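re: ur question from earlier - yeah i can do the single chain one, its not a big deal. heres the input i used so u can compare w yours
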Amino acid sequence: MAKIDEIKEILNTLRIAMSIAFGILVVLVGSIIKRYDSSNIDAIFWIGVAFTFVLLIFITIIVTKISNKTKEIKDL
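and the output i got, formated as tokens:
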């Protein structure tokens, strides 16, 4: 397999992971808002808020890796 094909496969995998992470983020934020609207602020609510921030950091890391791989393709 050529180097460029390997990088393209990694890029596709990262894009799929990013799409899944964004989907999870949308569902999670919707659930947090629903719990907040129903005045159900408990441990599950705060765990969801913490997981949201962890997920945002994960998405940021993925976007950075996608950017680096794209620049690596440009250099080939």
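The mean pLDDT is 94. not sure if urs matches, ping me
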